[in-house]
Amino acid sequence: MKNDTLPAMDAVPPVAPVAAPSTKRRNSRMRWLWLPVLVVLGVGAWYLRPKTPSTSATSTSAPSKGGKREGSGVVPVVAVKARKGDIAVYITGLGSVVPVYTVTLKSRVDGQLMKVLYKEGDPVHEGDLLVQIDPRPYQVQLAMAEGQRARDQATLDNARVDLDRYQNLLAQNAIPEQQLATQKAAVAQAEGVVKTDQGQIDSAKLNLVYCDIRAPITGKVGLRLVDPGNIVHATDTNGLVVITQIQPISVIFTVAEDDLQVVLRKLAAGQHLRADAYDRANTTKIGTGTLVTVDNQIDPTTGSLRLRADFDNSANLLFPNQFVNVRLLVEQKHGVTLASTAVIQRTTNSTYVYVVKEDHTVTIRQIAQGVTEGDNTEVTSGLDPGDVLVMTGVDKLQEGSSVTVQMADEQAGGKSGGKRK
User: Fold this and answer.
1) Residue 8 CB: number of other CB atoms within 10 A?
2) What is the pLDDT of residue 40?
């Protein structure tokens, strides 16, 4: 019995240990094969998740880019009304400020510069004493001339006494007539000498006047060119100081020759054309004057003509040699149709505006444009006062587009109201 059962026990154990390890290895392989698949699926899901809301947002915002609100097709615009009003017609030109008078003071006598009685840059008035030159040499000359005239005057007086005596003697036939004629010549000669002496006196007095150099005009003095103590001469090329007239002052500017006839007609009719001077940036008005004259020839190289306008310059905003932009008022139009310059659209061959109709749709209206001044433009045909014109939002419009309108003045009022809060 023991021998029969032992072989069976020996046969069973080898089967069980072989089968268990093989099953475990298969299960492990399956797990490793699924792991890459799960990773790929996870990565794909991660990339797909953000794309879904982005696509939705894009599809939602697309209508707004087309100028529509939630598919309604209504375009919001800002509009302004055409109106009736006045507009000015200007001719513009470039110019520079030029003093009406500019004087370079020079010495008219030789001598030492003793005193400078002005401060650089100060305003001076006509007749103010500015510079003094040593007068003593000319005082000596005056004394010598007066002494010479006194001596020669005594000689003249004696010659006249002799002449009277000779005339009496000739009447008595006591002297020859030739002696009387000689005495008359002596008197005339003495009179000439006295006149020469008087000229010397006047010359010395004039030199004394020239020693005091006074302002010949009212204006503004510049920088000092010669310091006290220097010897100056009447032949010096350089001056002592320069005076420029500031009030009034003039502006010389140029206009195109095509505008000349308009200006000449206005001047011939006796009109005083107003000229406004603006700064270099052409933004700030710095003076208002009047056109006074037109040059007598056109510059053939530029096809322009020079004009002069005078300004009172009471505020001292105009300065000599300053660059300015000048606007010459030649006409004032009254009761014309005006539109904001921002509403006007242009192509290569047409000028038009978008007009808002009563049914809140727009139509394209061809117009004819006149004068433009600042933000206003004259419309000579195509518009009536009161027409509502689209100012902003035209890039989204076409013929018949539906719009919601906000007027520009209401928009400005809303902004100012917000600021007040």
Assistant:
1) 8
2) 67
Q: Which long-range contacts (CB under 8 A, 24 or more apart) does 185-192 make?
A: 186/159, 186/162, 187/156, 187/159, 187/160, 187/163, 190/152, 190/155, 190/156, 190/159, 191/156
> Do 223 and 142 share a structural domain?
yes
| Same domain as 267, residue 152 | no
- Determine the longest span between alpha carbons in the chain, in angstroms: 224
Distance (Å, whole) CA 71 – CA 64: 8
Q: In this structure, are 280 and 210 located in the same domain?
A: no
Asked if 319 and 369 sit in the same domain, the reply is no
The total of structural domains in the chain comes to 4
Question: Which structure tokens are listed for 108?
Answer: 């008219």
Distance of CA 294 to the CA centre of its chain: 22
Distance spanning both ends of the chain, measured CA to CA: 115
Distance (Å, whole) CA 231 – CA 110: 7
Q: What's the number of CA atoms in the CB half-sphere (13 Å) around residue 92? A: 8
Q: Are 204 and 138 in contact (CB under 8 A)?
A: yes
Distance CA 325, CA 277 (A): 6
Is residue 95 assigned to a domain?
A: yes
Q: Tens digit of pLDDT for each residue in 142-195?
A: 999 999 999 999 999 999 998 998 888 888 888 888 888 998 999 999 999 999
Q: Does residue 8 sit within a domain?
A: yes
What average pLDDT score do residues 77-87 get?
91
- Checking if the pLDDT of 38 tops 90, the result is no
> Average model confidence (pLDDT) for the chain?
83
Residue 368, domain extent = 74-82+344-420
Task: Write the pLDDT tens digit of every residue in 226-264.
Answer: 999 999 999 999 999 999 999 999 999 999 999 899 999
Q: Is residue 374 assigned to a domain?
A: yes
Whether 234 and 257 share a structural domain: no
**Stretch among 6-15, 138-147, 391-400 having the lowest mean pLDDT:** 6-15
| Predicted pLDDT at 158 | 92
Q: Are 191 and 124 found together in one domain?
A: yes
User: So what's the pLDDT on residue 127?
Assistant: 93
